Task: inverse folding
DNA sequence: GCTGTCC
DNA sequence: GGACAGCAACGCCGT
DNA sequence: ACGGCG
């Protein structure tokens, strides 16, 4: 029979429930785990140890979405209510076995992103206080060509039910032009809708496509959605964020924990689950693993064959002149 | 959260 | 060992 | 040149 990738499995927990500091070899790579009883989500009594055990358990499911992607680190060393900060440059700081991706900022300083690879890299990133995972939309082998386009629904003050309503309009528009789409909760307030691009186009083209789609959606539901970047110009409406499709920009990836009360997870959904009654807190560190056991990874189409942009844009122009 | 420095 | 200080994004675009 | 934005 054909060789196929091994089915994802869920291992036993990595860390014992007692010791505050533990050292483990993960696939031959040594990682130190400290302050394991620190309450990262105090309201939910979820500790840093729980976070490591979660990511270790779901690693098989998450890693395809991290492998070969530069990672923006969003660090919460003091837990979800502590001071947080971003970090991109890990030059000279990552373990020697970790992969990195060189880049330079406008001032010309040579720097290096951490690059997603294996479970050791994932857990080392977690030791820095990275609760959530923010991977690029493209991989180092082709950094200018995203694997997917994202439509990011940012509700501001709107109820989650309105996000669901907007998501279903996005779905209807994409269906009408025969473009596949994959929704997930953000774990914070919104919904992310991914469209597979297959690395065939660049970020400008991907963003232009997202702009076309949200333009159509906004024409259908102008009363509560906006395309304005400036918050003050949105008039309290939900932001249909297409600008996130640009080099170096990120959103929390699938199965990522979020630094929010409830210890929510950015959870991939079936479209038939996107309906009134769906709640952000339906998916948390407490039930995500059980759901993965039952449903498996329902998001992999995102990394599959990309759409044909010319055909899709033509159909859109035809149907929505 | 980690590293290096200083006592 | 313990107490510290220092350090940890980025580019676009409107004004 | 600065600040808002994600
Ligand atoms: Mn968002
Ligand atoms: Mn956004």
Result:
């Amino acid at each position: 029979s054909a060789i196929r990738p091994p089915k994802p499995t869920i291992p036993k927990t990595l860390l014992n429930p007692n010791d505050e500091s533990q050292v483990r070899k993960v696939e031959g790579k040594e990682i130190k785990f400290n302050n394991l009883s620190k309450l990262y989500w105090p309201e939910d009594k979820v500790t840093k140890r729980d976070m490591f055990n979660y990511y270790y358990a779901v690693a098989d499911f998450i890693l395809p979405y991290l492998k070969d992607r530069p990672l923006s680190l969003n660090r919460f060393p003091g837990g979800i209510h502590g001071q947080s900060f971003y970090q991109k440059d890990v030059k000279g700081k990552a373990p020697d076995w970790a992969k990195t991706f060189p880049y330079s900022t406008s001032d010309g300083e040579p720097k290096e992103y951490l690059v997603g690879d294996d479970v050791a890299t994932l857990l080392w990133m977690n030791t820095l206080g990275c609760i959530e995972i923010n991977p690029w939309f493209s991989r180092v082998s082709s950094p200018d060509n995203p694997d997917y386009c994202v439509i990011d629904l940012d509700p501001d003050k709107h109820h989650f039910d309105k996000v669901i309503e907007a998501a279903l309009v996005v779905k209807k528009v994409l269906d009408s032009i025969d473009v596949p789409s994959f929704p997930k909760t953000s774990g914070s307030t919104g919904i992310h809708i991914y469209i597979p691009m297959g690395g065939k186009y660049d970020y400008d083209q991907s963003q232009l496509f997202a702009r076309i789609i949200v333009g159509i959606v906004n024409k259908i539901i102008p009363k509560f959605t906006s395309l304005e970047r400036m918050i003050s110009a949105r008039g309290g409406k939900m932001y249909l964020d297409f600008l996130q499709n640009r080099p170096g920009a990120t959103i929390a990836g699938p199965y990522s924990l979020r630094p929010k009360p409830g210890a929510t997870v950015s959870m991939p959904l079936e479209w038939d689950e996107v309906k009134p009654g769906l709640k952000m807190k339906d998916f948390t560190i407490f039930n995500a693993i059980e759901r993965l056991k039952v449903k498996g990874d329902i998001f992999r189409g995102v990394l599959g064959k990309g759409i044909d942009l010319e055909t899709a844009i033509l159909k859109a122009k035809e149907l929505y002149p």
Remarks:
- Chain A has a mean pLDDT of 97.
- The domain at 22-135 of chain A is CATH 3.90.920.10 (DNA primase, PRIM domain).
